[in-house]
Write a structure and sequence with these properties.
The complex is a heterodimer of chains A (484) and B (95). With 484 residues, chain A is α/β, with parallel strands linked by helices. Chain A contains 15 helices and 11 strands. Classes of the chains: A alpha/beta (484), B mainly alpha (95).
Chain lengths: 484, 95
């Protein structure tokens, strides 16, 4: 049962060959058996999961109309508020936080009759690339337990890769869906900025954050994306557009297809095995009739610096709300009000969160804001203009999702800059608001997954996923599973 | 460019973060390295380039000013570290 895709599970249940309860039980058993090694989940409520599944079965028996994800278990990154269910963002400062409301994407999953399976581990406040910054536990890569699953949505990616959930939601501020998808050998989509509501998504960098799906195949990711996307009056940055329809046309190849290959994505620091797999993927597209075009995104070398100024500036402002007054941790001993706030935050935040709040505060402080924050916003426009030019002559842009395969746990924890550079190919899409997807495109000699990143113009998810599906239909990398 | 530990302490004060001596020393080193790295942006010519705060350039969103249901007080205060009646309780701000 757990080796099936969500699409296959929907067929099984629609035909009456499986119940939602049986599906939920199979995944709960997989979690019980596998998660002590993988440590993807922070919170699983077996009883609530089974109740949701049984309710779907009861409605199906009565012949009631059911939603697009009826009976599909979904794992959810602990950055999304779930009413009545503890939501920690993997931070001690939110250790006891029980949201009084659902994030819009959670409400939409419920409307689609999905079964919420549990909350997954992440880097604290989504700040990190390895999931090692969680205040609770280190999640392991299902392909090699000594390696990182990627981050910050590492729990969701590892849960899907190890068949503890058929699909999952993560969030992507600088690559936090695409990077772990690449590390774990699954599909991960970051939608265009504004496609998916951020209401109830605990904020990190508000001009960059998007919720995105993980699955074993492009169709599963598309199904989940369709279910959660669309305008939300409670998020003023969500775009006034009809909800995207992806699945009806997903199997139609894009023809003619011009693929832009940025020369800046194949420079120093790119692992040779990753480069070989990505070049081979481009050959596959060429075999399918695509034209490959050399393009330049000349401001790529500045993307990491631009991102770490803008994201941290926004974070320093967003995280000011954790003050020990309204919710979350309050220090036991303190002097005056200011001291209470300083001590509560000092005790509640982990090291990387503090480091980023400090950098962002510095970039916004009097005397430095022009040189750092405003300068970064100007370079952000230049980065976006590079993509505008590329998409004027190409349908999509392709390259590696990450410069290397999954590295060892602990390798980069003491070197924040080296860690930041692992996001080098993913962060531009967030700065420019583009949709991007990572699809499995090969394995290293050591059997570690490699991801191909495909980017498209804003709101072009339908084309993006059709292009991704063309590769998937011509290869079988996405069918490989790690040993249980 | 190197940041001094006093600058780091000042930024921590602005951010309302209490740092241990160890953290202050680590962040002085880390932030110096990161600021050195991001200084490469100074070499990009941005004359006549407008800042881009949002990839999707948005205009203000208005809605009808009509009352709607909001969270009941008990739910809104359920996560408060301390409450008194219908209020969040904090240490005295004025003497």
């Amino acid at each position: 049962m757990i080796d099936r895709t969500a699409t296959e599970l929907l067929d099984l249940m629609a035909r009456g060959d499986a119940t939602a309860e049986a599906v939920a039980l199979a995944y709960l058993e997989a979690i019980r058996e596998r998660d002590p090694r993988i440590r993807a989940f922070l919170h699983v409520d077996e009883h609530a999961t089974l109740e949701q599944a049984r309710a779907v079965d009861a409605r199906r028996r009565r012949g009631e109309p059911l939603g697009a994800l009826a009976g599909i278990p979904v794992a959810v990154k602990d950055v999304l508020c779930t009413a009545g269910v503890r939501t920690t963002c993997a931070s001690k400062i939110l250790d006891n936080f029980i949201p009084p409301y659902d994030a819009t994407v959670i409400a939409k999953l419920r409307q689609a009759d999905a079964v919420l399976l549990g909350k997954t581990n992440m880097d604290e406040f989504a700040m990190g690339s390895t999931t090692e910054n969680s205040a609770y536990q280190v999640t392991r890569n299902p392909w090699d337990l000594d390696r990182i699953p990627g981050g910050s949505s590492g729990g969701s990616a590892a849960a899907v890769a190890s068949a503890q959930a058929p699909v999952a939601l993560g969030s992507d501020t600088g690559g936090s869906v695409r990077f772990p998808a690449s590390m774990c050998g699954i599909v991960g989509l970051k939608p265009s900025y504004g496609r998916v509501s951020r209401f109830g998504l605990i904020a990190y960098g508000s001009s960059l954050d998007q919720v995105g799906p993980f699955g074993h195949c492009v169709r599963d990711a598309a199904l989940l994306f369709e279910a959660v996307a669309g305008h939300d009056p409670r998020d003023s940055t969500s775009i006034q557009q009809p909800p995207p329809r992806i699945t009806p046309t997903l199997d139609e190849p894009v023809q003619p297809l011009t693929i832009g290959v940025p020369r800046e994505y194949f420079g120093a620091g790119l692992d040779a095995e990753v480069e070989a797999a990505v070049r081979e993927a481009l050959n596959v597209y060429e075999g399918l009739g695509a034209a490959i075009k050399d393009v330049s995104l000349p401001h790529t070398p500045y993307a990491v610096a631009t991102y770490y100024l803008i994201a941290t500036a926004e974070a320093s402002s967003n995280l000011a709300r954790y003050d020990g007054v309204h919710y979350g941790h309050r220090a036991a001993r303190f002097g005056d009000l200011i001291d209470m706030v300083c001590k509560s935050r000092g005790e509640g935040f982990g090291k990387e969160v503090k480091r980023r709040i400090m950098l962002g505060t510095y970039a916004l402080s009097s005397g430095y804001i022009d040189a750092y924050y405003l300068k970064a916003l100007k370079v952000r426009r230049l980065i976006k203009q590079d993509f505008d030019k590329a998409f004027a002559e190409c349908d999509v842009v392709m390259g590696p999702t990450a410069p290397t395969p999954a590295f060892k746990i602990g390798d980069k924890v003491d070197d924040p800059l080296a860690m930041y550079l692992s996001d080098i190919y993913t962060i531009s899409a967030n700065l420019a608001g583009l949709p991007g997807v990572s699809v499995p495109c090969g394995f290293t000699a050591a059997n570690l997954p490699i991801g191909l990143q495909i980017l498209a113009a804003p709101l072009a998810e339908e084309k993006l996923l059709r292009v991704a599906r063309m590769f998937e239909a011509a290869t079988d990398w996405h069918t490989r599973r790690p040993k249980a | 460019m190197s940041l001094s530990i006093d600058q780091v302490r000042w930024v921590a004060h602005l951010a309302r973060l209490e740092l241990t001596d160890d953290e202050a020393a680590t962040f002085t080193r880390d932030l110096t390295a990161i600021v050195d790295y991001v200084n490469q942006l100074q070499s990009v010519n941005t004359d006549n380039v407008e800042p881009l705060a949002h990839a999707v350039e948005l205009t203000n969103v208005f809605r009808a000013d009509e009352p709607a249901e909001s969270l009941p007080v008990d739910q809104a205060l359920a996560n408060a570290p301390r409450r008194e009646g219908d209020f969040y309780a904090v240490p005295a701000v004025l003497d």
